[in-house]
Design goal:
29% of the residues lie in helices and 23% in strands. The protein contains 15 helices and 26 strands. A hairpin with a 3-residue loop joins β22 and β23 (410-416).
Length: 532
């Protein structure tokens, strides 16, 4: 049983049963630390004196007169008068000379922007979808729904209340106002004034204490979110790490550029905070880095002020909507454009890009779906590729295939030769088929956003050199994926074990719901046979 399953077992979805003497007992046992606070309706019932079982109890009077209370929400985590969370600040762009703007403008072909990638953003009432195309091929897809303050909270910062600490699991469960308590592991706890990693978690955290924490992993299925106390605020060129001495520069930058940026950092690094320079900072001016650092520092000051004002669990900082987040992380001169089919979002994104990358602002385009005969996704063949991306079977160019199946513990990918019969020898046919499969598996992992443990069953190869080459090509293909991966060598059975960091639900889960009949396994049980 996993740590988060322990949490969910102890809270047992908030259900309670009557205990001895008329009290209440938690169905999950005696561990009440992970139990969520009473709902606002229960608090209101108590204040009104209704639904009380003891006839001898007096009716409670409501204080403050009519209309002066908090609407009965004072017993829960979220109150109607909770302050609005801090949002990402943009500010004014640094003025650049024409020569610098021309260098950052990117390539053009026949007067039109040219680039390897295209981003399509389609907005509908039920969801906003973002598709990233390389040429005409779909390589990444994101879905953001209006309810994503619950499901898509990666990067949000909260004032959380520790509900219980489990020394045996080296973890604590924290109420951050989401339906499920979030988990904070010992390795993610910040020990103030001490670098001693041997200090136990029960000595660092106490139940009912408030902590500032950030979500590093979205809640998935029955598991709550994962937290860290090492907060980081991402900007366009740098990442600010408050209350830390972290100091780093992206390894993807050339050594000469790293030396230049290191000199700038020595001058602009704020006291009491760490700085990590992103790959996007290549060739940017010192004024732009100073502007980014100052904006993030102001943002953190606002978060700290809000945390001091709050007494109950609350959202302190909300990451911008999905489209802005993806643009902040991905958009550069390699993109030939961002096409958006919603006027309001187009205006927001245009303003944001003008504030961070003014040289590329003309690449943000509006797609008028009322004037166009086809939808944005149909125009760029995204819809067809999405249907293929949720199919368990993927065909390879030479006739082979992949079968992708996910389980609770891991994802299994089976490689088959299928219709690929080759020409010279069986070993050569299998080797060529596996090379195709290695490249396609890397693409599918990125597109479907598959995370966790992954096992790939390549077709058996007799020659060791061929096995090593397949793994090399696979690692090379995975290098284009920004999500962290770890790949182990191929086994004698042709199995490759790997891990890919999981942040949220995958593509299939984001585009589907569980079957109402079987609830996921794909089998509808015959009840007549079970009742014999």
């Amino acid at each position: 049983m996993t740590t988060q399953e322990t949490q969910n077992t102890s809270s047992n979805s908030g259900r309670r049963r009557r205990g001895p003497g008329g009290g209440t007992a938690n169905n999950g046992g005696n561990d009440q630390g992970s139990q969520k606070p009473n709902s606002s309706s229960n608090a209101k019932g108590d204040s009104d004196g209704k639904n009380q079982e003891g006839g001898g109890q007096k009716r409670r009077r409501r204080r403050g007169g009519r209309g002066r209370g908090n609407g009965g929400n004072n017993g829960g985590s979220n109150t109607n008068n909770s302050p609005e969370p801090v949002t990402a600040l943009t500010g004014e762009a640094v003025e650049l000379d024409e020569e610098t703007l021309a260098l950052r403008k990117g390539r053009e072909r026949k007067g039109k922007p040219a680039g390897r990638y295209l981003m399509c953003v389609s907005v509908r009432e039920q969801a906003t979808q973002i598709a990233v195309l390389e040429g005409r091929n779909l390589i990444e897809h994101y879905v953001s729904r209006p309810s994503d303050d619950v499901a898509q909270i990666h990067g949000n910062i909260y004032l959380g209340k520790v509900q219980n600490v489990l020394p045996g699991m080296e973890a604590a469960f924290v109420d951050i106002t989401t339906p499920k308590n979030a988990v904070l592991y010992r390795g993610d706890v910040q020990a103030k004034g001490s670098d001693n990693r041997s200090t136990k978690i029960e000595q660092l955290l106490k139940p009912k204490s408030n902590i500032v924490c950030q979500v590093t992993k979205n809640p998935i299925a029955h598991k709550g979110a994962r937290l860290t106390q090492e907060v980081s605020l991402p900007g366009r060129f740098v990442v600010l790490v408050p209350n830390s001495d972290t100091y780093g520069i992206s390894k993807r930058l050339p050594e000469r550029e790293r030396k230049r940026l290191r000199k700038i950092l020595d001058r602009v690094k704020p006291k009491g905070a760490g700085i990590i320079v992103r790959t996007a900072a290549e060739n940017v001016t010192e004024d732009e880095i100073v502007n980014d650092v100052r904006r993030l520092a102001d943002q953190w000051n606002a978060i700290e002020k809000l945390a001091k004002q709050s007494q109950t669990p609350a959202l302190l900082y909300r990451e911008p909507e999905m489209a802005v987040r993806v643009i902040r992380e991905e958009f550069n001169k390699d993109y030939r454009g961002i096409v958006i089919d919603d006027r309001a979002l187009y205006e927001d994104v245009k303003s944001y890009v003008e504030s961070i990358t003014p040289a590329l602002a003309d690449r943000v385009q509006y797609y008028d779906r009322d004037a166009e005969p086809l939808s944005l996704f149909e125009r760029h063949h995204v819809s067809d590729q999405l249907r293929k991306a949720v199919d368990p079977k993927v065909w390879l160019p030479s006739g082979g295939s992949l079968i992708i199946e996910s389980t609770e513990a891991l994802t299994v990918i089976d490689v088959n030769t299928g219709k690929n019969v080759g020409k010279s020898s069986l070993e050569e046919t299998v080797y060529r088929n596996n090379l195709e499969a290695a490249r396609e598996v890397a693409r599918q992992l990125r597109l479907r956003d598959i995370g966790g443990i992954i096992v790939i069953d390549f077709v058996d190869m007799e020659i060791k050199k061929n096995r090593e080459e397949v793994v090399r090509v696979f690692r090379e293909a995975l290098a284009q994926d920004k999500t962290r991966t770890q790949v182990f060598d191929i086994s004698e059975l042709g199995l490759v074990e790997m891990t890919r960091k999981r942040i949220g639900e995958g593509l299939v889960e984001s585009l589907s719901t569980l079957c109402a009949m079987c609830e996921g396994p794909g089998h509808v049980l015959e009840q007549d046979l079970l009742e014999i």
